[in-house]
Design a protein that fits this description.
This protein has about 160 residues and is of the alpha/beta class. The chain is built from 5 helices and 9 strands.
């Protein structure tokens, strides 16, 4: 199954739309992240796996491919973690696949499954608003995201 979640990559102070696509399929067991990720994004694999395990979910003994589209746009930073985890949960059927279509998601995951603050919540909120979507971000970043305007739907969960 393939599931997708919207997020952003930062180019200067602009949040550029990125779609996190996750496919779970038969094949060599493991998780690969493609789409021009930097080292922090590649390390997301370890943070996502640990956070899902801490939350009581286990990765299936299957091949998991994470595509960050568009592939030619450089992706930097740890803020992709939450979007990858939620897209993976949707691909596994743990959450409805269409539950996040109206949101852009940013957030770094801690190994215990909690969500850490990120830099760039305001440009992410502005980018989400430009797409006609709300923003899901860490609680510590919610106040920054709120500066995007009162018309932006911001969800800032603590965990």
């Amino acid at each position: 199954m393939v599931a997708g979640v919207g997020t952003v990559a930062f180019q200067g102070i602009e949040g550029v739309p990125v779609e996190v696509q996750v496919m779970v399929a038969p094949g060599k067991v493991g998780m690969q992240i493609v789409g021009l990720p930097d080292k922090a994004v590649a390390e997301s694999r370890e943070r996502v796996q640990a956070a899902l395990h801490a939350s009581g979910l286990a990765l299936p003994a299957k091949r998991v491919t994470v595509n960050l589209a568009p592939a030619d746009l450089p992706k930097e930073g740890s803020h992709f973690d939450l979007a990858i985890a939620l897209a993976l949960m949707a691909a596994l059927g743990a959450i409805p696949a269409d539950a996040l279509t109206d949101y852009v998601v940013v957030g770094e995951l801690n190994l215990d499954g909690t969500i850490a603050a990120i830099s760039g919540a305001l440009p992410a909120a502005i980018g989400a608003n430009a797409l006609g979507k709300g923003l899901i971000c860490p609680a510590e970043s919610g106040a920054e995201a709120a500066w995007a305007g009162s018309g932006v739907d911001i969800l800032a969960p603590a965990a």
